[in-house]
Amino acid sequence: MTRRGWFFFVVVGILWGLPYLLIKVSVRELSPALIVLIRTGGASVVVVPLAAARGALRPVLRRWRPLLAYTAAEIAVPWGLITNAERRLPSSLTGLLIGAVPLVAALLAWATGTDRVDLRRVSGLLVGLGGVGLLVGLSVTGTQLISVASIGIVVVGYALGPWVVSRHLSDVPPIGLLACSVAGTAVVYAPIAVFSQPTRPLSPSVIESVAALTVVCTITAFLCFFALIREVGAMRATLVTYVNPAVAVVLGVAVLGEPFGPATAAGFLLVLTGCLLATRPISPRLRAGRDVLSTASTSAPTPTGTSSPTTHPISTLPPTA
What we know:
This protein is mainly alpha-helical. Helices cover about 75% and strands about 0% of the residues. It has one domain (about 5-120, about 145-260). The termini are close together.
């Protein structure tokens, strides 16, 4: 990874570990729908005029189908579910569960043929799922299971979002994509949020939290995330979720006094280990050896004296960035 890639990796990791704390504070006095509306509506006021001035809206709107898919998978559905879930779940546990995103990203890569399945990666998937089970089994009560299930939907969405960008929106202006996504989400949530206005003045901590969610964790973080995808690729971009849970846990424990015991630590380590095993690229030496074998097998004469047209799957894989 380049220095530029590492820079965006660290910045996004920190900025996307922060929202769990800010949401936990905001949801004390605001409804989930209103929080999402303020966050996306405030971002729209800033980024939509900038994107329009740069002519960045039209190229995105021309691809309205992948735009809708990305908006639903990365913003509209996850933000509403996370905000609602944090009414019952600790912010640190929410961040830890989101750490399973690379596992789903690995499954998506295998299903679409952009990566290869082997014993190590299957083992990583099983280890990671075991870690998620440990987190849920020892840290969640019966009344919180619905919230945990909603976080599972978020995990799937967060894995799909970068994939959609990489496959269908990689060449559109990032600021145009962000502007259309947050504006579309704001339009969806506005009719819902209008019925959940606060009945008393907001505390300074809630106002500051919502403002930070909008400026820092939405506008700044997403622009950095798009730059990260372009620098290192969609698959590695999702690995930023290794950093997010650690930031969420530190902030949740230090600021909110949330519990973090040995069982939670063990569950997180299993998830982290599973993600590393499931997403770690094949070593260049092993890949080169397999490519040689593949070339030899495809160029070897068949019993009829002709060359086999079959190509080994590994030779068609794109390089890992």
